[in-house]
Amino acid sequence: EKQVLAIPTAHHDGVNVVTFLDSSVFATGSDDSTVRIWDIRRFADKSLGVLKGHKGWVKNVEVDHKSGVLFSIAFTDGVRKWNLDDLDSYQSEEIYDNLIFNIKYPVRLRIS
Question: Pick the residue with more confidence: 11 or 93?
Fold first, then answer.
């Protein structure tokens, strides 16, 4: 095994899911209760956005390309909705109250 790249500021706990939003941008969901948006072209820099609001481990991330909305689901508090066109507003330390569906202990979410 060889570590290719380390980003010390990425997540503070394990990453559960990686979802590509397009050919160069992807989202990661972590046990640190956050979702981060990344661009491969500036991967070593910093994330494009940190989506805070979940109270538990983020287990899945799905994107609806038509509407530009990302949905994240956490183990203990349900589904949250994020507008990908508004990533700049998620740069602060603010925690967002954007819960759209409360369900306890889900494992996966799939948009169809």
Answer: 11
Burial class (CB in 10 A: 0-12, 13-18, 19+), 35: buried
Cβ density class 56-67: b for 16+ within 10 Å, e for less? ebbbbbbbeeee
pTM of the model: 0.78
